[in-house]
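Hi support team,

I submitted a single chain yesterday and got back a structure, but I'm not sure I'm reading the token output correctly. Could someone confirm the output below corresponds to the sequence I sent? I've pasted both exactly as they appear in my results page.

Thanks,
R.
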Amino acid sequence: MASVVLTTLGGAVGGPVGRALGAVAGRTIDAALFGGKRREGPRLTELRVQTSSYGSAIPKLFGTMRVAGTVIWATDLRESAATTGSKTGGRTTQYSYSASFAVALSARSIRGVGRIWAEGKLLRGAAGDWKSRTGFRWYPGDEAQMPDPLIASVVGVGSAPAYRGIAYVVFEELALADFGNRIPSLTFEVIADAAPVAVGTIAGVLSDGVIGGQAGPVLGGFAAEGTSVGDAVAALIDPIGGWYAAGGGGLDLCFGAGPARTVSPGAGAPSRRRAPVEPRDVVVAYHDSARDYQTGVQQVRTPGARATERIALPAAMQAGDAAALAGMVAARLASGGEGRTLMLGWDAIDLRPGERVTIAGEDGRWRVRRVAIEADGITADLVPIPFAAPGPVAADGAPVLAADVLPGDTRLRLIEVPGAGDTLQVMAVAAGTAPGWRRATLLAGDDATGWREIGMTAAAGTIGTVPGVLGPGTAAIEDRTSEIDVVLLHDAMTLADADAAALDQGANAALIGDEIVQFGRARRMGAARWRLSLLWRGRQGSDWAMGSHGPGEGFVLLDPATLRAIDDPPPRVGRAIRAMASGIAPDDVAETAIVPDGRALVPPAPVHGRIDRVGGVLAVRWVRRARGVAGWRDSIDLPLGEEREAYLVTIAHADGRGETIEVAMPAVTLPVPGAAAQIMVRQIGTHGASRPMILPFLPEIP
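Hi R., thanks for writing in. Yes, this is the structure output for that exact sequence:
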């Protein structure tokens, strides 16, 4: 390259002779533009860990690339506390953390930022959707950009840097719960140009227009770094076999075969020299754009090779292009051992290094590497330009990529669930309308307290609707004839079968309207449509709701892992509880409310009632149930679960009259009514009476 720069300058002053003399001092200018012999360009590594060190190199990006960036500004972690629970049941304080920081991406202006990965998982999808809550802004790196308002508010308006000429991004209050409460290692898909960029264009930009010539191959992306312009350009040009020729006021970049000048050897036989060619395999490492820019490797094997030529190209490419590059390097190495030195006549005194030539009477093209003026003529060192054969066929393999799924919109349900305790239980179940939904910030309140953040929702629940109407049934036996269709929020939500043993342990319990139903079989009927059968109806004392169903009722699978208790403020019977789930997007807010009726605090209605005539009286018997107990165990009485065992027995006459008595045993003797009547039995619980068990009575017909 020394001969290239100064021959251009010398030719401008003194013609061919001046051009030849100028080559003597060429190394001085070459060192000024390209540095010394030691070169250190950008290295291709696995996607590097994000740094915040002073003096870290900020690359100039071209095309579309994935880079780690350099943290250039950050605040301390921000701690937030959310306290849940009641004074009587104990309070729990949960702490969450967020961070605000800026990351420099490119020392060249960019057009946008695409996907963002955190710890290898997508933080921002291709559609611009976020997987964790954060504020985000990006700056293109032009000379007119202004300081970021967050940075200005922290360091002062007059002291905030604008980072002009640096493309960077700002995260504001990035939630760190998904990353172990620390700033994660981030990588960014940066769109620096609207389309792939030619190698010649990249070299021209890096050299401020000094390098021109051919456009050359096109790359999907390139990250230019180095201690000098020469280092950065060499890392791009050398692997693809480019070279320089003197141009008008600068350097012309050359690739492969092209227009060539024909030269004829002068008097005397041309001297030849052949260096032994050591066969070498070729390995090209690159960023595979089809594999989220992870490092890819393409290899070309050479028969008899004992060594390997390794090329690390910090460029985004397809596997086929990288394989073609490896093939071209192999061809260049195979022919590179042959060099020729020709003695030319004085008519070749204007021959310049970098020119393509053909030798009169011979095939092939050659590149002039060196020209020397000697006493008896011009000596030219030539190297062959290999024929660009098609590269081997290659594929990207089967990459394992980070899932990029949209979160959809947040959906929230509040339900009152049965239990054995003395506390009213209101649970929040949340999910999204798309598979990418994770969690949402949960707020709760009532008319007295207003909204209060109480933490995050639980894992995504299984939520849907029932288009049809669930008909009447019985809670005494399994319903093997009825079926019910359910449409879930999205097709990634699934339901599963459960055998009798699993059902007996409470599996596949779902709230449909006000009734808790278990199902033994679930069949997919469409994308998000399921048909449920082998039904266990009226579970956990909800048999009172079996006849109250209507079309379009809600469906919630009662999975404990998806239930989040609303306990601040503590729910009360008859007082509305409001809840709000705030998703990642600013406008993704779901709000709902419930007025608890205390169904979970009272015992289930008695069952298995029976009326027998004994003499002139009625012997009425029944079996009590217990809160929080879903089934029966042989030879074991159910726990009482209440302060005392007591029942209210009412005889309701057809004319509206009624008599009520209280008994302490699940049996009572009553006088025979003179007309049709209903006998209603309620169990008295600690917090109220159960719903009635109703036994009709018809008098005997004489």
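A quick pointer for reading it: The first helix runs from residue 2 to 22. Let us know if anything else looks off.

Best,
Support desk
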